[in-house]
Amino acid sequence: MKSEVEIQDPVTTGILDRLMTQPAPFLEVLHAIQDHHGYLPENALKQVADRFKIPISELYGTVTFYHFFQLEPKPIPDIRICENSTCCLHDLEAISSEVVDADLGVAHSGQVEKISCPGRCDTPVPILVGEKFFHGARAGAVAEATAAEMLLPPETGLEECLFRDIRDGVGTLDGALAHGAWQGPAMAASDPQQVIAQLKESGLTGRGGAGFPTGVKWEAVKNESRGPKYIICNADESEVGCFKDRVLMAHSPHAMLEGMACAGLVTGAEIGIVYLRWEYPEILESLQIAIDEATRAGMLGEDACGTGIPFHILIRRGAGAYICGEETSLLNSLEGKHPFPREKPPFPTTHGLFDLPTVVNNVETFCAVPAILEKGAAWFRDLGLGENAGTRVFSVSGDITRPGNYEVPVGTSLRELLDTHAGGTPDGKAIQGVTMAGISGGFVGAADLDVALDPASLTELGAMLGAGGIIVHDESRCMIQAARESMHFLAQESCGKCFPCRIGTVRVTELLDELIDHSTGNPVIRSHPLEELADLEEVLGETSACGLGLAAPFITKTMKKYWPDVLQDYIEGRRPERQGERDAK
Amino acid sequence: MTDTMKMQLDGQEVSFTEGETVLEVARREGTFVPTLCWDERLDPYGSCRLCVVEVEGRRIPASSCTLEAEEGMVVRTGSDKLRKMQSTLVEMVLSENPGDECPRCRDIGTCEVHELAEQFDVGRERFLGAISNASKEDSNPFLLRDYDRCISCFRCVRICAEVEGDYAITMTGRGWNKGIATAFGGPLMGSECTLCGQCIYTCPTGALADKKMVGQGSIPGKVEETRSICPYCGTGCSINLHARDGKMIGVTPALDGPVNEGALCVKGQFGFDFVNSNDRLTMPLVRKEGQLTPVSWDEALDYTAQRFKSIRAEHGPKAFYAIASGRAPGEGAYMLQKFTRAVMNSNQVDNCSRA
Fold first, then answer.
1. Which of A113, B214, B274, B314 is the most buried (most CB within 10 A)?
2. CB contact A347 to B (< 8 Å)
3. Average pLDDT in the A233-252 region?
């Protein structure tokens, strides 16, 4: 089991000595080694395996799971370009070939690698060279893509919770303090039960998509006697079409940090960890500045906000894996295990990080907490329409005039969000359909655009609200192709553990490809494609081991529901009227 | 001892003890629950999802291998809906393997995947598309590795880790591109692998097999299995000898072997060539004028006794050193030390399995 390390790499030794005393150092150690060497050398990995007491084979396997850990040196970086749904609507294929010769002002190898959505759907198409992003590449003018800019959310005129001060410079500690930030932790320390009661009363639920009541979760962890406990902020926003957490962290980091501190002081956890997706390097930098500022000012640290109780926050970077947004995969990833989802129960509230009681909440959820504590549970609850509590942030992209993040009351109609706030389609074309939950919530077709944006209403339509990403497709698009792009992403990002998801997402993608190709004269292999599709949907939706596979049928079921005629055209080998842009693959 | 608890299984009340999984309870009751990722020696894994059951109060089926039985739980195993999904899953698994003949089924008897295909009466007809296609050459002498047939149940990886503690192989990549490899992808012989063969024995497909057994499919005749004890050392592992036409073609470990519980080492698993070897000693040989010459047992024993005596007379007892073979039984080893001490007057005794 012990690997023999022939030549000790002094850099790795130094990194290990420095980081091994920190909580959950695994990912940080690997990133530090890769940052220094440009890749993960074999002997360095052997040293890591020795120090973490992980078999070297297991470590090797775990490293190969992630997109962005490299085992070979690559002195000149490749060009990486998003291949997913929103970018497919923006001349992806043309941009991919053009970018090879484009002068972006940085050295690149000329090799183009397609990557999964890096959360820049408001400024498509993003190009990544090394760790530098370029936004807004257009066909015919790729070189004009600009360095990444974190756009502020467009104004809506609505009363907001998360965005209420976001345009007023709350990114810095001074700015945040001027708007009343960092009052919550003292309340959390003096009367944790009251904070839990407030959260329960407010109706705040998990904004990562699962919608579990936040107050109940915190209370469960508070009541656990085992420790140390952990607070984890899930900032691994990786769903295609979702970029709300990025903007919240860029412009309102102190709300999130304060929310985490409140969770720590309520539950008795002294460590908070932000699991930040690798694809947000700008946030890594700005968030660390915010943490340092808050720590220097005594908001965080050994005596957090003058409560006499310690609370520290540190960042752990992911390495490119959608599944790590699933909370139990995230925990395995932090622990240095193969990042497969765990069996639930037990849940993280009792058996979380290192099997200890852990709060895992999404960025948006933590961001909402300070405002609720400041303005009251009733205020937040009343922001929602009808029976619904609060607001939610929706990331809108695709065929839309003003792509971006919109905070609207839960229960707002989809049409109001798209037409009134986001300006409708840019060229006046009718909307044919939109994706929900990013992509994994399926579609809502034109007939149902008046649906209220709340979980129950979407479920009634056979779709899922989820994490609040919405990709708009106008009438010129092919929705079978859109479904194919959604399923392709899930197939790319399936962890590969459970059979229904590993095989099923690939087979559904192939089946849709086959139907689409059929219209161009290619033969069909399947004699009963719809029957096969229905059988695949059934095993995916009922036997998959985690939410990724379980959600996959939303895509094809809503596709069949809204666009049966287009599907029938393909099955019969006709080129449908709405062929859409076939530049997606 | 904990009290016995009760649950409902397909309408019948059944007892279970704390910690038992629903799969264990169901199988104990003789209920058919298919699995592919399950091996009784391994921790429950819940990846093939074939063992799904309906549990009252749950929206969707649960994998019974990872589900602990609870007091009052109401479980259904074989509804039409479950059978249909299990059948689809088997078809999906078949679709990711190549369509040609499975070498394991042809030459060794059967594999779990094709047994299930037969049970569900399905073939490789639907869900066709890419095959796993991760074939890998490996120059080791014993283990056939044909990962085109891999179904990513990771039983090989898990048995290597959980039972053998060798951690020679790991799962790489993710999703459809999941593979099995040693650290840094090198050959097995350069890894922590001891060639114990546990991976091939737990493999439910033809992806891993005994190289020596595969390829004998063209030889006519029925394969006969004989339960035996491994002759290599004093541990006494239970094995099954596979023979065709009176000739040994392979060894498999016996799962119910009281000392090995299905484990074997490289010698017991693969080291049986001597049985049919031309070089095998079949009678005593004595070197006469530089030539090894066949002799009778009487002559050989007389000659040996003579030499022992003369050596002791000429050089003293310390010239004698006895090493008992690990393959000898305890009684034989006892006799050798007795002989060495009482007859040869030497204390120099050892056993090869002491190292």
1. B214
2. no
3. 97
